[in-house]
């Protein structure tokens, strides 16, 4: 690797300078070997993508054969020097089965005489400020500005020698106080775990009608613990990937990068249930707590209370009064409503046509059993949002989602899930300022919600703030680095930014991480299409369709690519297929219009876009920024469509 560094980087309190030093807060030079520095530099330079281990090793040891353990040691050394605790991923994220990625906030500085400073935000840490005074409305805080903002740069206050002396003195005092406290307590103090995964409970000889309970009980515990700010609890859609009984809890925990893992088993006989639960610390496999509960199913709420409380005690978390209330809170006392809610959540997580329809049915039953069940209304809102532009037109689905979310908020205005669902519905109804307020409120209530960062990124990209949308997606990845959706749709934001190289690189990484997931192939197809590489686009769209035959967007992409490559026959066959599908289930008119646009039949294209406008077609949300519409931007009908949709217009 070259020893000359022309660029300078700054992230958090650290700066890498042209003398190959890592400096903390502009004063303290940190001890870093040449190889560790090269490792850090390579990760920072390639922060927009995952660096696979083989590539890293060939870059760092180009003329030598070394084992993977050498790379792992370099990364481990860097993490210690950067002050990362296990599972934090503040700067370096491990991508299981792949390699590493730098995820810290980076400022790229010019060479020593340059006056221009260029900032690249690879991940933003969203800071949600608590209400300073009673009665202050948290939704007035400018969350978008917080995502844009980087931490303030270091200030040079004292000479570095005096700084080191001061640090040494403080260290001695701190060490003395720690020894005194440990002796007074009679034990060695340990840093308690702060990140947690609650795995779906495993059924022993479960009846088909009881399959939902294992995931449902875990989901209930996750919902309770997610309200505690001192805990980073992996969301349900993350842990459900480890529902297979063959998956070892410790392996799942390490892949998710958590400090501790809660797992359990359930047996059921009639209305009697037995839950065997164990909480384990990941770094050494030490059990922190274990218990068996024998109860009637009607006492399931008490069991969930006990599990949540004992987890908090075992992790030595001190709860605020409001957090204690949330932990003990029941969203319903009706056992039938609760059972139907659990069935709805289980069906919703299948993400199939049948599953989504069942979810709506079960949530409806739960609401009928308990008309004040806020969490069931939020679940219903989520289900309608998922069906939008897929099983139902947005014009039909989103008002239903909005109504359900607003009903949830009538019964519980502090429910983050309801604010996020309402924001998503308002976004796709093109009511952008209202959506912004709801996303903001949701993140105030739950700053660790992957789905809220994900949907908030949709909002940011729709108003042309692609860099901030990418930052929000990186924040979601910091919480859930294994999300197929977030890893894939990060490429969509890069596509809207017209960073096609970054889009394709991110799509390829997602393909490697999730070989059975169709979305990265779809987005890669869009990138190739825009760049005129039609054969490559066709290949990616075909792969997307093989994995998801219901994807009308992928079929539209095929038709567009055939049209632009000169194969009008296949393009018209794709049109016929889409119009046939539209007779059996919902197909967005916008997707049909795109094929006519590619065929240079603009009158028909705008006829279908008008139908898409009537349906509140999802793709029209990005009308002014999506490159797919570039060749019709000069048409007066396009300007009129933008005006009617009311979405943002690009800055001149």
Account of the protein in words:
The chain is α+β, with helices and mostly antiparallel strands. The two termini are 42 Å apart. Helix content is 54%, strand content 11%. The strands form three sheets. A six-stranded antiparallel beta sheet has the order 4-3-2-1-8-9. Strands 10, 11, 12, 13, 14 and 15 form a six-stranded mixed beta sheet that branches. It is built from 27 helices and 15 strands.
Q: Sheet bearing the most strands, described?
A: 6 strands, antiparallel
Q: Which residues sit in consecutive blocks of at least 5 with pLDDT less than 50?
A: 111-193
Structural class: alpha+beta
CATH class of the domain at 337-481: Mainly Alpha
Shape annotation: globular
SS field, number of helical segments: 27
CATH arch. level architecture of the domain at 337-481: Alpha Horseshoe
In round numbers, the mean pLDDT is: 81
Bin the strand percentage. 5-15%
Give helix % range.
40-55%
CATH superfamily of the domain at 337-481: Tetratricopeptide repeat domain
Number of E strands: 15
Query: Reading side by side through the largest sheet, how are the strands ordered?
Result: 4-3-2-1-8-9
Task: Say what the CATH topology of the domain at 337-481 is.
Answer: Serine Threonine Protein Phosphatase 5, Tetratricopeptide repeat
Radius of gyration using CA atoms only: 26 Å
* End-to-end distance: 42 Å
Q: What is shown here, in short?
A:
The protein is an alpha+beta fold and 652 residues long. Among the domains are: 8-120, Arc Repressor Mutant, subunit A; 195-330, Rossmann fold (3-Layer(aba) Sandwich); 337-481, Serine Threonine Protein Phosphatase 5, Tetratricopeptide repeat.
